[in-house]
Amino acid sequence: MEDCNGALTPCATSLPNVPNQSEVNKNLPYDALVGSLLWLSLGTRGDICYSVHILSKYTKCYNMELWNYGKRILRFLKQTMNDTLIFNAKPGTDGNATEFRLIGYCDSSFADDKQDRHSTFGYCIFYNGMNCVSWSSKKTDTVVLSTCEAEYFAITRLTQELTFFKQLINELFANSIHGFMIYCDNKAAINLATKSTDHGRSKHIDIRLFFIRELVKSKKVLQLEYIKSEDQISDIFTKGLNKEILIKHKSQLNIL
């Protein structure tokens, strides 16, 4: 791959076909490729996180299509080998950074996995405005029944991660953070979290429902804000993007 041509995106906008057992080629170093890319995606290159997540789902059953999918990520890394995750010492220009020094963005697909119809959720966390300190792209534990539930699942997982960061930073810097903010692009999920009225179709998610509502009751702990889908940074963790949108979200993650 040293002399390969670069690629402008790490993956196609469409998902690869689900392989079957008869297609497995044990001669391919697929596990080594996935392991190396996982290390990189978890450390500094959040822009390949979704692509690597797709690869890692098929470590027991893979084919040449998935192998080429992985090689495309390598071609993208060659094209962008000088890209760097930047951290700023001073808070960003975002006015929310002064009151909410921990800000999260979350998003979710809906039943995109062709094999079991689980959804993919993703999130990213910013500390002091522009510093992206955590990100993730994972498959939901269970099948969700609506886009609202899928987004609510993402909010719950992000809240758990933000709570951990809040406790960690307060241990290091003596209660410097009192609350955090989450941006979500699904109004139904936000209404479900902020309003006490229940609907029959939301009863099955009542545990997550009351977990979030308890934190929302005091705006000093959790504040949920709506953001337009085109401005949702965590889109990069839930689907394959075209070049223009990928570059936009990469710069928002401060990978420059």
Please list the strands of the largest sheet in the order they lie side by side.
3-2-1-4-5
Q: Which descriptor suits the 3D outline? A: globular
H and E order: HHHHEEEHEHHEH
Radius of gyration: 19 Å
Q: Can you name the CATH architecture of the largest domain?
A: 2-Layer Sandwich
How many extended strands? 5
Look at the structure and give the mean pLDDT.
Answer: 87
Proportion in helices: 25-40%
Number of domains: 2
Structure overview:
The chain has 256 residues and is α/β, with parallel strands linked by helices. It folds into two domains: 59 residues, no CATH class; 157 residues, 2-Layer Sandwich (Nucleotidyltransferase, domain 5), CATH 3.30.420. 38% of the residues lie in helices and 13% in strands. It contains eight helices and five strands, in the order H-H-H-H-E-E-E-H-E-H-H-E-H. Helix 5 packs across helix 6. It is globular, with a radius of gyration of 19 Å. The model has no long low-confidence stretch (mean pLDDT 87).
Question: What key phrases describe this protein's structure?
Answer:
256 residues, alpha/beta, five-stranded mixed sheet, Nucleotidyltransferase, domain 5, globular, 2 domains
Structure summary:
This protein has 8 helices and 5 strands, in the order ααααβββαβααβα.
SSE layout and pairings?
Layout: H1 30-43, H2 49-56, H3 64-79, H4 96-99, E1 102-108, E2 120-127, E3 131-139, H5 147-172, E4 180-184, H6 187-194, H7 206-216, E5 222-226, H8 243-252
Parallel strand pairs: 1-4, 4-5
Antiparallel strand pairs: 1-2, 2-3
Helix pairs in contact: 1-2, 5-6, 5-7
